[in-house]
Specification:
With 371 residues, the protein is of the alpha/beta class. Helix content is 30%, strand content 16%. It has a single domain, classed as Aldolase class I (TIM Barrel), CATH 3.20.20.
Amino acid sequence: MSDTSTQNPTLLTPFQLGPYTLSNRLVMAPMTRSRAGEGNAVTPLTVTYYEQRASAGLIVTEGTQVSEQGIGYPSTPGIHTAAQTAAWRRVTDAVHAKGGRIFAQLWHVGRISHPTMQPGGAQPVGPSAIAPAGQLYTATGMQPFETPRALELDEIPGVIEQFAEGARRALEAGFDGVELHGANGYLIDQFLRDGSNQRTDAYGGPIENRVRLLVEITEAVVKIWGADRVGVRLSPTGAFNDMQDSNPEATFGAAAEALDRFGLAYLHLGMVPGALDPASPNHSMLKVLREKLHGPLVINGGYSLETGNAALAAGLADLVSFGVPFLANPDLAERFAEGVPLNTPDQSTFYSGGERGYIDYPTRHAVPAAV
């Protein structure tokens, strides 16, 4: 285990993550903020937003599309054009100037899209032609999900190359590493779970086949970055985007075992609240994955300073990621260190665009954030 202090770790204890010594164990979780500008490129507002939060031990960016095909929501950023890459470079330079570390989260939404957001009005793609239940927010309002087109076997290498190209561009943009978004019902997660993957070829059926795309994408990205600068995010008990699996402990245990062979920077588990409760399915899932995984584990799911510290002390995780607390508190690490109360998040501004609720949350000294 890569750890600079194995004795009684807390959220404020430094941590050795691959080649990087993190100043604390607080990870800023990836959060969609819907503030990308023209050409799905991040803007100067985004530079300020991440710069303000550079005291996190590690920042993981919002989901960042690896291709036009990977787009699922309006105003979300990509990393598949030269302009997008150059815009992200301004973000990484600003974070590094403040002493921070930042990974890009590489994202393909798969079936969680709509023809209005696909090149040429095409159908979204997925492992199988199974539509998720519910609706999706689009530029024209809420729309029902449409049935995706199942990817052909000979298209899958192209999808893997989309992630590889995103990884190359992230390196060019000056990121410290990348995180593969294999959670929350998006493309990699869709291949993992048998509720959305009913293929009969080498990427469907038995667990080892459903894990194959995750492994092959990870392998392609590791060739570019090295394993110790690549993380993977999974959500083994999450049901978001209509996700189901008949045996999640077996599925995600196999995924963790396959990933463990790479020696990755970390495995990031999203949507695992209440893991301190032995009666919680998240507790038993963490126990299973801890047995399979020998590298660092990051957990996420509504943790506080107290419960995050308790999870570290119990050995359930090595780092804890925080979403909304970092959204509303650019100086979250300092607030935790000094015992300062947290700002109240304004949910109406989470995806509203503009400065409000993005870069104007006050610091603990009540100084408005600079634009």
